[in-house]
Amino acid sequence: MQLIPSQTADTCSPCKPPITSLTNTCHRFSSQHSPLYLAHHSTAVPHKTHFTMDERGEQKGPSASKILAVVAVLPVGGTLLLLSGLTFVGSLIGLAVATPLFIIFSPVLVPAAIGIGLAVTGILSSGAFGMTALSSLSWFLNYIRRVTAGLPEYLQNLSDKMGHKTKEMGHEMQSQAHEGWAKLSKRPPAGL
To answer: Cα(first)–Cα(last) distance of the chain, in Å?
Structure first.
């Protein structure tokens, strides 16, 4: 490991100009450039391009926050794992105790379960049918209201049209009757 001397004509590998002082500057680059470049040329850092974690001064291993996270989560996870194990064992014991009771009472329990299932199905289906009937009835009543809202105007228009047509037909029949009488009156009588 070789440190950069203060007044030698040593060259820097990235830029190849001679380093004249320990002011963290090179001939080609000013102090406004990358801090990584300047840290590479500082007096406290050896003149190497590749560093290991120990040479940079960083710690090896997990950080303090990771250690605290593990220390905080470990008891909670262990407690939850213990509770899940106890619940599983309790469920197995309850199943072992209840299985003979289910077998003994199965002639009663199976028909009871079927009956309860059918009752629940019937109640749910009757509710669904009732809701369908109510929605259909509501739609039908709204339709009737919409149709009857315009019915008086429609009937008035219809009666006006029928009255007008009746008058037209009456005038036409009257004119045809007058024409027919006029033709009959112009004809000579048939027997004379």
So the answer is: 160
* Contact status, residue 20 vs residue 41, Cβ threshold 8 Å: no
- Residues 118 and 126: their CA atoms lie apart, in Å, by 12
- Give the ranges where 105-187 is alpha helix by DSSP (H): 106-149, 151-186
Question: How far from the centroid of its chain's Cα atoms is residue 184's Cα?
Answer: 90
Write phi, then psi, for 11 (nearest 5 degrees).
Answer: -105, 150
Phi, psi of 97, rounded to the nearest 5 degrees: -75, -40
Q: Are 87 and 94 in contact (CB under 8 A)?
A: no
Examine the pLDDT at 80 and tell me if it is beyond 50: yes
* pTM higher than the cut 0.70: no
φ, ψ of residue 18 to 5 degrees: the values are -70, 140
Cα separations in angstroms, 148 against 144, 152, 154: 6, 7, 9
Residue length of the chain: 192
Q: Which residue has the higher pLDDT, 184 or 100?
A: 100
Give percent of the chain with pLDDT exceeding 70: 66
27, 13 contact by CB (below 8 A): no
Weakest mean pLDDT among 46-55, 103-112, 124-133: 46-55
Residue type for position 5 = P
**3-class SS at 142?**
helix
Q: Is 42 left (phi over 0), alpha (psi -120 to 50) or beta?
A: beta
